[in-house]
Amino acid sequence: MLTVSPAGDGLALHLDAFPRVAFEYTRGLWSGESLVYRRGGTDVSFLQVTLHTFPTSLLYAGGACLATILLGTLLGTWLGAAKRQHVQDLLGALGAVPDFVLVLLLQILVVAFYQSTGVRLARVASIARDEPALLLPLLVLSLIPTAYLLKGVSTTTREIIGRDFVTAAKARGLGRFQVLRRHVLPHAVLHGQASAAKVAALLVGNLFIVEYLFNIPGVTGVLFEYAYRGFYREYQPQLVVNSLIAIIALYAILLLLTRVLAAALMKVSGRG
Amino acid sequence: MAESPHVRRRFNLRLWLGVALTSLMLFLALFGPVLAPYPEDYAERLEVHQTPEGPETVYAPRPPSTRHWLGTDRWGYDMLTLIMYGARFTIFTAFGVAVLRVILGGAAGLVGGLRGGPRPAEGTGSRSPAGRSGVLSALPAFLVVFLAMFGINFASPLPPLQLVLIQAGLMMLVGLPSVAAVVRAKTRQLSGQPFVTAAVALGAGRRHIGRRHLLPLLREDLLLLVLSETILALNLLGQLGIFQLFLGGTRVSMDPIMYYSITHEWAGLIGQARASIQANQWTVLAPMGAFIVAVLGLFFLLRGLEEYFRTHQGAPSRL
């Protein structure tokens, strides 16, 4: 899987690693070796670990996905129709701030608040299995995709509210809320559907950072924890391949979830 | 709304804020090492204070003071000095990566857009760029760079500058497809315009249309794209730093395992002080502050320029 490695002081590109790993992985799949990796001195079944890590990741990413689609679409429609653009500016600026910066800042704030007042606002990391950090990870995880979706949806909304059918609906006596619900929201949902792949990709990307910084035992953590053993020349390509497959599966489920949510929102608008 | 005259004359706060902050960053990147208050390798591991009860020894890290404006890190290095030395790596790498992405990706997108002909009139297009890339878009860019750089970046025998160039090249490559997709979509949209049809009818070739009719119109978009790609490149740099893949190489010490940035690039400074959320917070807050100022400066510049272009469009000279 490594494409570059130093041979003494020279640099070598190992493009042949890709077919080799693919071949060995497929062969190992037959014998079962590809589904096992080494942790400490023992062999661990990847499937068994994934049985715990996958639902954890799915819980966080799925929750954030739910929040993103609902907030992004509904709030985006509402804000896009608003006259002032300050809230979008604020959210846009927040969305431009990298996820890891947000995580560290929030952690520092919560710790500082605790140190000065003795009140614990939220858990800054998961330490024990039965006491997971929930609030902060979900907040950070959904913030950037939400800001992204909200920007797109509010731009769409601003364009839609200038169309003739909005004037027609108003002329028929529909109130502002009803016009937004019946005539603008469907377009916002369509925009949301079109950005589903991007939103899911953003969520998966952020999941790496969030799981790592909050110490959440999810699918991405396994990849990094044991890929690091490459440093001790114990690099395990089958682990990376397995993790990537798990991550792509997660991505697919998130994509499906966005579709379901979009369909539900269509129902809300009375067009489903 | 945007067309009314009093909006046009409105003071563009975002633009000026963006220009000011971005200039400050460029200034730091150019002259940081010259202006830094201490030499790069100067460290104060301990300080002796005279108190009424006798001499008192204090150890690094020290909190911000008049002597060290941003405090010192755990080895006694002045944070402000480190940030000023690291600025050129952070700023120029992010900017260079963005410019190359836009030049190469833009060229590919322009050619691809011209080949494909105009976009179909009914708008099904919003779906294509993100949707078509399929499962590969599930893998975040930093993961690709991380897995590729992983074998050479830790305790590397290679010189830092070479590692910087390799990493910048990889960062550039992972961003090319999205830039190309954006420019391709925009090119298709423009090729449907009447003036292109007219040019084709008059016998203009693809190259001529691309250079004389489309490129001038794409110029503003490309400039904005450079800015947003710089933000993305900074973000990528930071994400890699969080996973201890520091630009220019990661030095590793054993017992305890610790990672140090060789170039003092900002994401590296953040990454190496990441554990300081409970104590000595300034060691992580200082480089993070610099990072945030850089990102926000670029963001305001981007929004400000968008607004500028929007309000200065339309009503062209009729001569």
How would you sum up this structure, described in words?
The complex is a heterodimer of chains A (272) and B (319). Helices cover 71% and strands 6% of the residues of chain A. Chain A has ten helices and four strands; from the N terminus they run E-E-H-E-E-H-H-H-H-H-H-H-H-H. In chain A, helix 5 packs across helix 7 and helix 5 packs antiparallel against helix 8 (196-213). Chain A is globular and about 75 Å long. The mean pLDDT of chain A is 78. Chain B is mainly alpha-helical and 319 residues long. Chain B has a single domain (26-43, 79-313), classed as Orthogonal Bundle (MetI-like fold). Helices cover 62% and strands 6% of the residues of chain B. Chain B has helices spanning 5-8, 13-35, 79-116, 128-132, 141-153, 160-191, 194-201, 206-242, 266-272, 282-312, and strands at 46-51, 54-59, 250-253, 258-261. Chains A and B meet through strand 1, helix 3, helix 4, helix 8 and helix 10 of A and helix 5, helix 8 and helix 10 of B.
**On the 0-100 scale, what is the average pLDDT of chain B?**
78
Helical fraction of chain A equals over 70%
User: What count of domains describes the coordinates of chain B?
Assistant: 1
Number of helical elements of chain B = 10
DSSP strand content of chain B: 5-15%
CATH fold annotation of chain B: MetI-like fold
How big is the Rg of chain B? 24 Å
Residue ranges of chain A: pLDDT <50 for 5 or more in a row?
Answer: none
Q: Strand percentage of chain A, roughly?
A: 5-15%
Uncertain residue ranges of chain B: 1-7, 120-132
Total strand count of chain A, please?
Answer: 4
What distance separates the N and C termini of chain A? 46 Å
State the end-to-end CA separation of chain B: 27 Å
The strand order across the widest sheet of chain B is: 1-2
CATH class of chain B: Mainly Alpha
Main structural class of chain A: mainly alpha
Multimerization state: heterodimer
CATH superfamily of chain B: MetI-like
